[in-house]
């Protein structure tokens, strides 16, 4: 349970996130006692819990949503301390992320993403961190003209020579820092002239899942490469994945599945060596489900596309050790499909791992899997969980009860994924 302990006691404090976003800086004045202690641990980068590795994410408004969220939750789930900082922002402030997705036009479309909380002051001390992550997106442009941001990148890439992860457009920061010369580098295709003008060696991002490692500099086209990005970043930080045996994980989804709740576990589990596949009753392999983003006011926005990787008729339970049920509105479709409900029920009957986030609990309730169980549930499923016989319903966080893992919402993804990794016997060990 070491990884889960790190998540609970490290740099992430899920309970305060949404409240901090709702009230902004005024919320800080209202905190007292234990809550004040939680906020202070968020505010100070020097308080990093028991983690043996710590990573800084350099943020800004309109950074690509997945390119911030996936490293954030992946590293946190693995017990790595993660801090987020941005010029002009204080801990408790938020950056607005951007969703970049191809929707049938010649260039990707930009859609509004999530509010992403900052947890550290800027500028940060690079010596306090073992790696730097810079998401892509339009945030890169103002960062490239910010002297402190450029100095931070230079410190990691040139002076400290510690791992720097640059995705999509953020390779511009490496050029601005004068650190591109002679580096083998990939990026989104439009960044090729920047790489070559700055003296780098361009590597075609083929396949899109490619992560190029040139010493301590890691580059990728963007979020489609997150499985390899996670693998390479852990390696560069001295991490070794233990217990990965290509365990099969099946993600059941449909249109309007929650954006983070589907994609983040999908990418993280693949990054530590699991064989992760996605299936939908109404989609063929290669087709996409549209995802939904729910902001702090509860409004629904369109998210990224989430591609189905296996035909529904080809789904066989024997191929998997775990079934994962993201929330959003897609469970309303899945619960009307007899095969989906019976599949979830059969996973439990055979002693396999069943995992669900918030509205995914509708399938658990229908399959009779909540009776006599402890679970975590957000507001949408709390009454239904009780009606289905849950003996205790936690309003936040993630709960493991035997082979059943539940989470209240996407803000609990790090703890949720940590439980999954623990039950799949996957851990990460870092060299001293």
In short:
Residues 54-235, 249-421 form the DJ-1/PfpI domain. The chain is α/β, with parallel strands linked by helices and 432 residues long. It contains 16 helices and 23 strands.
Q: What is the total tally of β strands?
A: 23
The top-level CATH class of the largest domain is Alpha Beta
Low-confidence stretches: 1-49
Spatial order of strands in the largest sheet: 2-1-5-6-10-9
Structural class: alpha/beta
Organism: Hordeum vulgare subsp. vulgare (Domesticated barley)
GO molecular function: lactoylglutathione lyase activity
Family: Belongs to the peptidase C56 family.
Protein name: DJ-1/PfpI domain-containing protein
Structure description:
A hairpin with a 7-residue loop joins strand 3 (94-101) and strand 4 (109-117). The chain folds into 2 domains: 2-237, Class I glutamine amidotransferase (GATase) domain (Rossmann fold), CATH 3.40.50; 241-430, Class I glutamine amidotransferase (GATase) domain (Rossmann fold), CATH 3.40.50.880. The strands form 7 sheets. It has a 6-stranded mixed beta sheet, sandwiched between helices. It has a 6-stranded mixed beta sheet with strand order 14-12-17-18-22-21, sandwiched between helices. It has a 3-stranded mixed beta sheet with strand order 13-15-16, with helices on one face. It is built from 16 helices and 23 strands. It has helices at residues 2-9, 14-23, 25-30, 33-43, 65-77, 140-143, 147-159, 171-176, 192-197, 226-236, 259-271, 331-334, 338-349, 361-366, 379-387, 413-423, and strands at 54-58, 81-85, 94-101, 109-117, 131-134, 164-167, 184-185, 201-202, 211-214, 217-220, 239-242, 248-252, 257-258, 275-279, 288-294, 300-307, 322-325, 353-357, 374-376, 392-394, 398-401, 404-407, 427-430. The relative contact order is 0.11. With 432 residues, the protein is an alpha/beta fold. It is 33% helix and 24% strand.
């Amino acid at each position: 349970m070491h990884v889960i302990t790190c998540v609970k006691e490290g740099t992430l404090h899920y309970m305060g996130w949404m409240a901090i976003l709702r009230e902004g800086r005024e919320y800080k004045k209202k905190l007292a006692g234990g809550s004040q202690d939680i906020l202070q641990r968020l505010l100070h980068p020097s308080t990093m819990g028991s983690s043996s590795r710590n990573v800084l994410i350099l943020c800004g408004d309109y950074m690509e949503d997945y390119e911030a969220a996936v490293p954030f939750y992946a590293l946190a789930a693995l017990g790595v301390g993660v801090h987020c900082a941005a010029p002009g922002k204080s801990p408790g402030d938020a950056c607005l992320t951007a969703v970049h997705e191809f929707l049938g036009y010649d260039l990707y479309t930009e859609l509004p993403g999530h509010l992403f909380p900052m947890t550290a002051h800027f500028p940060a001390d690079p010596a306090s961190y073992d790696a730097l992550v810079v998401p892509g997106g339009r945030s890169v442009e103002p960062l490239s003209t910010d002297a402190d941001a450029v100095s931070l990148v230079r410190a990691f890439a040139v002076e400290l020579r510690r791992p720097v992860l640059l995705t999509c457009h953020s390779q511009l920061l490496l050029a601005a820092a004068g650190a591109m010369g002679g580096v083998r580098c990939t990026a989104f295709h439009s960044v090729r002239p920047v790489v070559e003008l700055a003296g780098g060696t361009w590597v075609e991002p083929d396949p899109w899942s490619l992560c190029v490692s040139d010493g301590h500099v890691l580059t990728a086209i963007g979020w489609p490469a997150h499985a390899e990005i996670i693998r390479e970043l852990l390696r560069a930080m001295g991490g070794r994945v233990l217990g990965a045996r290509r365990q099969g994980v099946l993600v059941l989804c449909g249109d309007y599945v929650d954006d983070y709740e589907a994609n983040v576990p999908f990418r993280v589990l693949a990054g530590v060596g699991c064989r992760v596949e996605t299936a939908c009753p109404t989609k063929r392999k290669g087709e996409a489900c549209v995802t939904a983003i729910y902001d702090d006011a509860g409004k629904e926005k369109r998210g990224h596309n989430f591609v189905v990787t296996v035909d529904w008729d080809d789904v066989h339970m024997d191929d998997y050790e775990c079934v994962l049920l993201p929330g959003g509105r897609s469970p309303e479709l899945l619960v009307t499909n007899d095969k989906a409900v019976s599949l979830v029920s059969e996973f439990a009957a055979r002693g396999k791992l069943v995992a669900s986030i918030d509205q995914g609990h509708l399938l658990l309730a229908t399959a009779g899997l909540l009776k006599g169980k402890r679970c975590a549930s957000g507001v949408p499923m709390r009454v239904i969980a009780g009606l289905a016989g849950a003996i205790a319903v936690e309003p936040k966080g993630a709960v493991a009860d035997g082979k059943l893992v539940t989470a209240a919402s996407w803000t609990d993804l790090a703890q949720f994924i940590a439980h999954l990794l623990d039950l799949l016997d996957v851990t990460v060990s870092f060299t001293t």
